[in-house]
Each structure stands twice: as C-alpha cells, then as structure tokens.
Amino acid sequence: MLKKSANSSSSLLELWNEELEGKSDFSNYRTKLLDLIRVIASQRPVIAAANIVQRINVVSGDANQTTKSPQDLDAMVGAQLGLETVVSAIFDGSGDYAKTDHEAKFQIHRTFEGLLQQLLSLKWTEPSLIVIHGHYLDSLGLYLRHYPDVVASVVNKLFELLTSLPITIQGPSNNSRQARLQICSSFIRISRAADKALLPHMKNIADTMAYLQGEGRLLRAEHDHLCEAFLIMASSSGIQQQQEVLAWLLEPLNKTWTQVEWQTAYLSDPSGLTDMFADTQFMWSIYHTVTFFEKALKRSGTKRSTTAPQAAITTTTATGYLHPMSSHLSWILPPLLRSLTGEIKAAKSMTISEQASLLGETSKPTKGQVAPADGLLDVQREGESKENNIRNWLRGVRDSGYNLIGLAATLGEAFFRCIDGSSVILALMENVQVMEFRHLRQLMHLAVVPLVKYCPAELWQIWTANLLQPIFVHCQQALDYSWSSLLREGRAKVPDSFGNLSGSELKVEVMEEKLLRDLTREVCSVLWVLALPGLNSGLPSLEQLGPVNRIDSSLKSLESFASSSLTGFLMLNVGTALPALRITVEVFSWTDSEAVTKVIPFCGALIHLAVATNRAELRQFVGNDLFSSIIQGLSVELNAVVSAELIGLCREIYLYLSDKDPAPKQVLLSLSDMKQEDLLAFDDCLSKTASPKEQKQHMRSLLLLATGNKLKALASQKTTNIITNVTTRNRGTVAHHGPSAEEEDRIGLAGLS
C-alpha cells in the first residue's frame, strides 16, 4: 500500500517506486490491491480480519507515542484503507455474513472487538493523528451495524476527539480546524454504515450538539456536518421521523432565511452584495444555510430509480408519497433564486486549484485528506485573502444553489407545482449569454439536466421548452465558434478567464480545449436525457411500426406524440428544436467520441419519430442531414469506439426511410466511389436477410466501398480514446443527484468560513 518516498523507512515493505513505475498510476495500482484484499476477505474473513489488525498494530507502533513521523503516518493511512476494505467485504451483505458459521463469527467478532477497544483507549492529541483515529473508527461502521452494543462508546469517543481540538478562526490551512471537520465527517460515514444501530443514541447526540453549541464550542460548519449525520440516522427510521428531524433542524433557519430585511438590503441589486461582503459573519451564515438545505434534500426521502423518471414520479404520486422536504420548498426557494441572479466578475476568475484540475495535475483525494469542493478552496496568497473569500462564496453559493434546485426537481410534482416556473427559469437563464464555459457546464450538469429529466409531461411547455431554448441557442453558437477555432486554428477560443499566467501559453491552450470538450459533452448529456425511454414511453420501436414500405396514410401526426415523447414535444417547438438539431449534426465533426456516444440515443429517437410520423420536414432532416453527418462521423478515427452504433443508425435510416423519401439514397449516391449498381446490389442483399446483424454488416461494407476505404472509424481497429493533449476523466452521462461514496470526505468551503 506504500510508495517509495524521501520519508520511507527501510523497515517497511514497499511495492511501488515512482522512479520505476511512474508517478501517475499509483492510485490505480492501489485500487487493484484493495480489490485483491476485498476478494480474499470475502472468501477467508477470519484470516483477513486477523491480518489487518496485525498490520495496524505494526504500523501504529507505541500507542503512547503522541507524535508520528511522516512515513509512519503514510503507513497508518494505508492500513486504514485496508481495514475499511476488509470490514466492507465481510459485513456489507454481499458475503452474507449471517450465514457465516458460529465459530468464524466468534473469531471475527473477537478480533474487531479487540481492535475497537484499542482505538477507544488511544489518547492521541496531534491533529493529523486524530484524523487517522477518526477514520479508523468510521472504518468499523459496518461492524457496528452487526454489533451495536459498542455504538455508544464510539459516539462518545468521536465527541471526545472533536472537543480535544481547539477552536480557531483562521485560514483553511489550520490543522486543528480541518481535523475537527474531519471528525464531524466521520459521524456522517458511521451514520451511513451503521444504519439503525445509531437510532437509540439520537437523543444523546442531539443533547451533546446542543450543549457544545450553547458553550460556543461548535462552529457552524461543524454543526451542519453533525446535522447531516442526524438526517442520515433519521432516514433509516422512516418518513415520519425524518419530518420531525427536519422540522427541528430547519425551524431556526426559517426565521432568518425568510426575513425580508436582509433580502431587501443585499439581494435587491448588485451593490447589495457588496454590502453583504463587508459583513463576513452574515455572508458565511448565508452560505451555510444554502449548503444545509442542499444536504437536507440529499439525505432525506426514499431512494428513487433514475432509469425511468416519469414512471417513478407517477408511482410516488399515486401512492400518496410526499417527500419530507416538500413542505419546506415554498419558503426555501424564493430567496435562493434571488441569490443566483446577477453576474459578478469576481466569480469568473479561475483559481489555481481549478487550473490544476483542468491540467490533470491534481489527484483524487483519499480518506484522511481534506478535499476542496470543486476546487474552490484555493491557497490564500498574500493580499488576496478577501478577494478569494468573495470569489469562493459566490461560486459556492451558486453551485450549491444549482444543485439544490436539481435535487428539488427529483421530487417531481411536489417541486414543479410549488413554485412559479418562470421565476426559476429567469434566475437560471438570465445571464446564460455571458457565462463562461465552466459556469455554463455547472448550470447544465447540476440544474438543467434534472429539471428536464423529472418535469411532468403536462408541464413541459411551461418548464422544459422555456428552459432549453436559451440554452440550446447559446450553446450551439458558442460551441460552433470554439470548435471552428480549434479545428481550423489549433486553439479553442473560450470565454473563460485564466487570470495571470505568464509564460504558460501551452497550458492555457490545453485548459481551453478541456473546457470546450467538457461543455460539449454536457450539452450532449442534455440531448441524451431527452431520449430517455421513460420520457418517450409513447414512441414505438421500429419493429412495432411494421413493414418498411408502409404507406403514409397509416402514419400519425407529430402532435400525437407531444405528451408521450419528450423528443416529439421538442420537435414541435421550432425555436428549441432547430439549435438542438444543429448541435446534433455538428457533433459528428467535432472529434470527441464521448460527445458522440451521448448524442446517439437522441439520434435514435429522431429516426423513430421520422419513421412513425408524417412530418415531411423531420423525415427530410433525418434522411439527408443526419444521415450525411453520421457518415461524416465515421471518417473521424476517434469514433471507432462507437462505429457499431453509428452503423446501426445508418441501417435504420436507410432501411425504414429510403422507400418513403429519396434523401437516403441520394446521400449514398453522393459518396465519392459509389456507383448505381453497387447500391442496387446492396438493396438486393438487404432484401434477402431479416437479420439486423447481417444488415449492419452489409451497410458497413457498402460505406467502405463507397468512400474508398476512407472512413477511418471503420478501418481502424483501435478501441481506445486518444483525444489530443487533454487529460480525460470518466464521468456519468447525466447528473447524479444524491450522496456519493466519497462526498462525506469533502470538507470544501466549510474549512474556509
């Protein structure tokens, strides 16, 4: 688990040397080691438990030693990751711990009970050791679920660790303050893992929180972390308990948040924000209020399926389910929307952390590290502390506000009918045309995608159409300009400000291209959402539509799909549809296979609509513009990874539209090496097989023949993405709304305020 460094001790076994193995692959290597440990622990739990405890005892050394060397701290962090993996493998349910024989259970219980008693007796006082101590305790969360008798001792120990550290109001580098926040995050992780084992101790935790707050020994950020843990505890006991806990936690916030005085003073015009920034304490109280609303939405309610949003909304409405946060949205949202309007230049300047992230110079934080929220936590340089504070506050409130709206949208009817849609759309879209790319991407990722995904069909006209039109119009123009610049001049021109980067022209070019690709993929993610099956339940499959030579009189009007297909609804709104269709055809020439991957389902939905309806304009677009663009996309070698899907789209267009419209055949005949007899032979081959696989193979062969083998995506055997000089990262196709496995470790702006 260790890598060789200047601090390394020759007495510790090291399996990684950066000089030999490289500097960038250690996290992947360590992940594979943990996977191996997980497999062994699931098969041989007794041996794994004994070995990890032995390892912890070796690396921890003398328990009475109050300080540790850097190499000892590294070894202790590695052992903690091993402990967490072993405990997870044994107790998380996949190994079915309940079926483990009695003797093995006894040995496992005794082993971890002994370790826990050691941890409870430790008296470490150094902040770095206290953080590791807290992580060792929260690594045992799943063990506590099965053996709840020791939960009270663990809770008391965490509070002891928290109060042993002094409260200091200083910069984000303060070790004690960061350690206190990490202990609070340990409460969150234990609440998630231990589940109902913590329920009997909720009153004790609440009383302790109230006592510490009354004594002035609990900062606002720490209090909010503990409240988040409290919400997780309540979520395991049912909706009624959640409602009671939310009422208790939100009542004091309601009194200040809804006051007209501060909104009038600070939110009526941009100069009001300047006045707020002069009141640092109030400024950060607003930030903490917004982020706590965000946490309350994340942690309450029941888990909802994300695969079929419309079906999920219908089901919850029909059964009378009401999310515990539903009754609070009416007073939370109006002041929040006022906070999101206004474009402030201070929020535009890019921080050093953001630049490093774009350049791929930062690695993902592991447990034990304080992670900045989306790179907001920057190094405070001399003379810039106040400016950075303001910039961080603006972007922190903005991103949390967007995420809060996105999370609220997942409530369905409860959200969309509790607030005027025009006020939300105005707040989100007011400054779209002057937004920098990274801001625009955050807006779409956190807010626009869930708003589109969860909007009830009867409200599409009010919400979805008005929301998407300004987004698509602006993004189509901005992306077209930036991609044209990149492909013609070798440099993407983006509106983002990189600050003062003297002598770093190449770095700026790399960051510009990364921002362009990120926004392109996010726009295509919106198109991906528009084609979700749950939002297009009324759209028949091509097989359901019957013979390919069906006459037009049996086709439906496009309007007949307006309430059962979001893609169909979009096509009826010309102002929104046109820029969306332009993006769709242009993306195939933009040399980004990930963006192409995201847009493929939308192309499929368009083909289905063109086949199912009698709308001549749509059929002409699909048979000519879309067909031509997909073939052009096959000339981009990077699209080799999705060439099979693109060939499938070509097959559907030709097979189902060529008898109804001359465009598909005209497109093929326009290819450089296509001959009439080749097309006739192709038609003959298609008529002799009903196998989609064979039809796709015929289409692939025809396209290679018709272009003189110039379609690089078909000729290439490569299966990896080699996008220029930009460091890529995997990301979900659409925004994920809800807690992730890592987020309990992310302290973010709480460490600054």
From TrEMBL:
Pfam families cross-referenced by the UniProt entry: Exportin-5
Disordered as annotated region, ranges: 732-753
UniProt GO BP: protein export from nucleus; RNA export from nucleus
Highest rank taxon of the organism: Eukaryota
GO cellular component: cytoplasm; nucleus; RNA nuclear export complex
Gene Ontology MF annotations: nuclear export signal receptor activity; RNA binding
InterPro entries: ARM-like, ARM-type_fold, Exportin-5_C, XPO1/5
Record-annotated Exportin-5 C-terminal domain positions: 8-718
Name used for this protein in its record: Exportin-5 C-terminal domain-containing protein
Lineage: Eukaryota, Viridiplantae, Streptophyta, Embryophyta, Tracheophyta
